Amino acid sequence: MNIIDVLIEQSPALIIAIPLLGAFLMPLVSRINSTVRNIFGLLVLCLTGFFVGILASDVLANGPRLYIFGAKDLAVPMVRILFEVDSMSIFMALITMVLAFITLIYSWSFMKDHDGLDKYYTLVLLLITSTLGMELTGDIFNFFVFLEISCIASCALIAFWISEGEALEAAFKYIVVSAIGALFVLFAIGLLYAQYNALNIATLANVLKYTFLDKIILVLLLVVLGMKAGLVPMHMWLPDSYGRAPPSVTLIIMGATLASFYGVLRVIFTLYGNVLSTTMRFSIPLNVLVGWILITLAIISIIVGVAMALVQSDFMRLIGFSAVAEVGYMFLAIGAGIAALGTPYATTALQGGILHLLNDALDIGLLFLVAGAVYYITKKRSLDDISGLARNMKYTTVFFVIGLLAVVGMPPLNGFASKFLIYESVYQLNPILSIVAILCSILMLAVFVKVFYAVFMGPELPAFKNVTEAPRSMLLAMGVVAALMIFIGLFPNLVIDALVKPAADALLNHAQYIGTVVGGV
Amino acid sequence: MFSLESGSGFWNPILWIFIFFIAFLLFYGIRGFGKSAYKKDTDQTKAFLSGNEESSAEEMHVKASNLYWGFTTSMKTVYTELRKMHTGNASDYVLWFVIILAFLFLIIGVM
């Protein structure tokens, strides 16, 4: 076994250990000076990114990889935690790493004048650790532990600008909602353990009988993770939190939100994968019922998200509501994929939903970065107070236009590629759903045209006559995201073939996920 | 390689850019037939407000919250209900969570 094989073998553990260790070392390193702290943060992410990269190349080439913490001997029951990394988990980890790098680079300039940055970077690294943990673990209790860490780190980051009362209020609401949700997840895990004497997702999926308790567990996990992903009508914490957190960390908080969306996929496709299409409910297959429940909530999310975004005057809150609508598009695709399981367009819908997951992270992420740049320069949140910034913030304006076009699904940007797959596949399930989704995209265009006019066009207000462009590190972060969006928009097939199709196949082929553990340990 | 297949259609961004470029050249050519009488920094560039003085930038600025006034007014009933739903109260957030939980319990679990 050569060194690369050893590194690949150990990478699932190192992906968690490195940022976790980095988080705890950060307060010490920060005592030296800010440059060393910044370089240390970048080094930690580069190392983590390296391990995510080599693990991704291995998983995409050779299938799921197992990592066992604890006893490998079956004679010692349950004293172990399994990490199972398949193409879907690694796809999520790659998204998290991209968001983490952007967050770090953007924060260098955005947060440089603030106090308590040792705590800030510690929390950022903890949030990255927990998000990666949620994505890589194959143990449902371990998933809960990482979910809790992500809740606490997110809450602290939302409240980071503690001098603003509203940040504290948003963090309070977030922790109330998250804590209640986490308790229900713990209750569901307790029920699973009581019935099957196991906590490993693959083992549970293998023995799940779909008893009455299993139905309760399905509902609990779906609703809590749906709420954490921002599904209407449980979305209200999301615009509050995204609107009040420092814009530099909104991206990585969004990464944690997307990890909850990943949790929904894992529960439906893997945990309940064996019973999904074989169980009947009201004389219809369970997958059709669950699919249509998700579709209904998704359509409500899209309509409510866009409609509420249209009337917002707070820049970041407006993007928060748009994020709710984008989550709706993802759930619409996944719901259609589940409802039509087994048909060719179900696979297309699933691929569209998974690609949209990446696109949502980039598009909404870029818009938050632009909103942050505008706030950094003007210290204003309300769209009513800003005007004519395009004259002095030319690069930021260009990045906003790219974000605007991508988020509304304008060709040839990345948003169009995923929405094209979603519209086409959902149309085959029910044309009305597709028409509603397209109309809401047009309304989304109206939302961001309003922002474009209000912030960048219009007369030059005397207060902003001498504003300057955003600092270089912020422009670099926005530039990298914009470049990725253009690349995915121009070459969607490269991303779909390399990452999205394997991820969709991993979800659909749950027998492989189960077999890796049940046949491997 | 560049064509994205959906099963019922396809999307080729490179082809789209090529067509867009041709259209741009066409429009640019047509533009060349226009009169180039535009003179910068003359009265030609000032807004004509029926002989009234041009107001200051602050007064001329149409604020973001005034945009789409017609749409939001015609949808007043919907927006009243949506705003009522978004109370900003954490107890209501939990209430919605419980409502959805109960609803799904009925559909998937109990009925």
Helical amount among residues of chain A, as a percent range? over 70%
Q: Quick one: which chains have the greatest interface?
A: A-B, 68 and 47 residues
Name the helicity range of chain B. Answer: 40-55%
Number of helices of chain B: 5
Round the Cα radius of gyration of chain B to an integer and report it. 28 Å
Assembly state of the chains shown:
heterodimer
Task: Summarize model confidence as the mean pLDDT of chain B.
Answer: 86
Radius of gyration of chain A: 22 Å
Provide the domain count of chain A.
2
Brief rundown of the structure:
With 521 residues, chain A is mostly helical. In chain A, 77% of the residues lie in helices and 3% in strands. Chain A has 20 helices and 4 strands.
Structural account:
- The complex is a heterodimer of chains A (521) and B (111).
- By secondary structure, chain A is mainly alpha-helical.
- Chain A folds into two domains: 1-273, no CATH class; 277-490, no CATH class.
- Chain A has helices at 3-29, 34-62, 87-110, 117-136, 140-158, 165-196, 201-207, 212-229, 237-244, 247-271, 273-276, 286-310, 315-339, 344-378, 394-407, 414-429, 431-456, 472-490, 492-508, 510-518, and strands spanning 65-70, 80-85, 280-281, 284-285.
- Chain A has a two-stranded antiparallel ribbon with strand order 1-2. In chain A, strands 3-4 form a two-stranded antiparallel sheet.
- In chain A, helix 5 (140-158) runs antiparallel to helix 6, helix 5 packs antiparallel against helix 10 and helix 12 packs antiparallel against helix 13.
- The longest helix of chain A has 35 residues, at 344-378.
- Chain A is globular and about 75 Å long.
- The model of chain A has no long low-confidence stretch (mean pLDDT 92).
- In chain B, strand 1 (4-5) and strand 2 form a beta hairpin.
- Chain B is flat.
- Chain B has helices at 13-31, 57-60, 69-74, 76-85, 90-110, and strands at 4-5, 10-11.
- A two-stranded antiparallel sheet of chain B has the order 1-2.
- Chain B is mainly alpha-helical.
- Among the domains of chain B are: 1-33; 74-111, no CATH class.
- Chain B has five helices and two strands, in the order E-E-H-H-H-H-H.
- Chains A and B meet through helix 6, helix 8, helix 12, helix 14 and helix 16 of A and helix 1, helix 2, helix 4 and helix 5 of B.
